[in-house]
């Protein structure tokens, strides 16, 4: 019998039991015939805000636009600086640069992979308008420590919907519903959650050409709206998110019990971590990645080259060696399969494969 493949993430396993409910909701959308900013978007915005514990949220086209719209609503643009990590998905810094502002990178804490507050402190200048921490791989960044600098925070929470302790410290948090995320849509989608309703009102206008009523256009805005069909699906998924995130945490814990942390450097748990991904590191990660692929097991590596070395951002003037921890992590990290519902047997096979590849314990 051929060996069963194990994907990096099995999104269908999560939504398959919900297909009948999705079909019902989609039938209702067809019945209503309101495809743009219809009742599902309005309801989802309320439900998401309640879930996140913030006064309002605004559905937008994707997680990248969510960042751009917040920066625009804060009037951050040319000459302004925004501090963010270099070890993150490109969209984080791209959104800052898209506004004509300057992404100022800061080093990560190698124990958490998230922004190192001490290095952030060193990079603050008179032009710093915001700090953009990323809750990378689902692990909350050090928001409280960053808050003591008194600079507005925009939380890039694309990978961390519902992570405890996130979403309420910054002026806004942004989310992506790309189909592999913890809370996912069936296509692109995004959300801005705000703690400041006035800022939310500006984002709401900006996503719709700077208008409230399609008559008066107050701002030069965008056309960036969450789709009604996606909102209908998200309303089906949101009530399951707490359970899905709990299952992800259980799966991460099981990787620890199976000994993954003895074979490779697996970061300590954080109670707020919702494990969008389980990312570990090993100096010989290419051997591990090759072994996992050979065994039909999904695995991925992240952010090499890191953002400060990406061709489009070379103009910022960073070079190899600018961020040693970031660069080392980019060379050493790899992820193993995780989703809400991965089985113990699947996880055992993953760890056995890593064990065979590594051969011996890391000191
Ligand atoms: C950290 C981070 N920021 C921003 C984004 C952008 O989200 P989207 O792909 O929905 O534009 C993503 C996801 O892809 C991400 O992982």
Q: Supply the CATH architecture of the largest domain.
A: 3-Layer(aba) Sandwich
Shape: globular
CATH class of the largest domain reads Alpha Beta
Largest pleated sheet: 4 strands, mixed
- Distinct ligand kinds: pyridoxal-5'-phosphate
Structure annotation, total helices? 14
- Tell me the span between the first and last alpha carbons: 38 Å
Helix and strand composition category: alpha/beta
CATH superfamily of the largest domain: Type I PLP-dependent aspartate aminotransferase-like (Major domain)
What is the CATH topology of the largest domain? Aspartate Aminotransferase, domain 2
Overall residue-averaged pLDDT value: 97
The order of strands across the largest sheet is 1-7-6-5
Number of strands: 9
Low-confidence stretches: none
Task: Characterize this entry briefly.
The chain is α/β, with parallel strands linked by helices and 363 residues long. It has helices spanning 11-15, 19-32, 39-52, 63-73, 91-98, 117-123, 143-147, 197-206, 228-237, 241-257, 260-263, 285-294, 324-332, 344-358; strands spanning 56-60, 81-85, 102-106, 128-131, 154-156, 172-176, 190-194, 278-281, 333-336.
Could you describe the 3D structure shown?
By secondary structure, this protein is α/β, with parallel strands linked by helices. The protein has 2 domains: 228 residues, Aspartate Aminotransferase, domain 2 (3-Layer(aba) Sandwich); 118 residues, Aspartate Aminotransferase, domain 1 (Alpha-Beta Complex), CATH 3.90.1150.10. Helices cover 38% and strands 11% of the residues. It contains 14 helices and 9 strands. A 4-stranded mixed sheet has the order 1-7-6-5, with helices on both faces. Strand 2, helix 5 and strand 3 form a beta-alpha-beta unit. Helix 3 crosses helix 9, helix 4 runs parallel beside helix 5 and helix 4 packs across helix 8. It is globular and about 65 Å long. The two termini are 38 Å apart. The mean pLDDT is 97. The structure holds pyridoxal-5'-phosphate (PLP). The site of pyridoxal-5'-phosphate has 15 residues, from helix 4 and helix 5.
